[in-house]
Amino acid sequence: MSINQVESVFQLEQKEEKKKTLNFKFGHDTDIGGAKHKPNQDRKILVPFVEHDGCLIGMADGHGTRSEEVADLCEKMMIEMTETKMDRILINPVEFLEFAFDHIHSEIIKTYTCGTTFSLIIILGKKMWIANVGDSTGILCAKHPIFKNSDLA
Fold first, then answer.
1. Sign of the CA dihedral 30, 84, 53, 90?
2. Predicted TM-score of the model (pTM)
3. pLDDT of the residue at 79
4. Gap between the Cα atoms of 31 and 140, Å rounded
């Protein structure tokens, strides 16, 4: 079994006289299913929103033949949508996530007969929105939690 472990760390600084710095650690573990000759079908997405005190974090896990291409497409489209539709994210993150999943799905089914699970998190300030399609699991951990359990319902 081939396992890759990657951790990404970045800092966000607000453009104000008083600079706030948020530290995020985003880690993922990927397993290509025991077949060394298969391409890895997992893609991570990390898009900082420096000027908006937040970020988008995501993971696509392709399933089926050519699903590494589907995971690549999810990554590419999500980064592009994040950059071009920031106003939608800021106005209504839930509607943006619904739009993103629908739009990416409609592009996938034009070409492919396989798919991917897809988990996304949007963080803006002290608020977080989480969306998921498929059976991938995301785990939220914090050394000093800023969210209460009731906030995560």
1. negative
2. 0.72
3. 92
4. 20
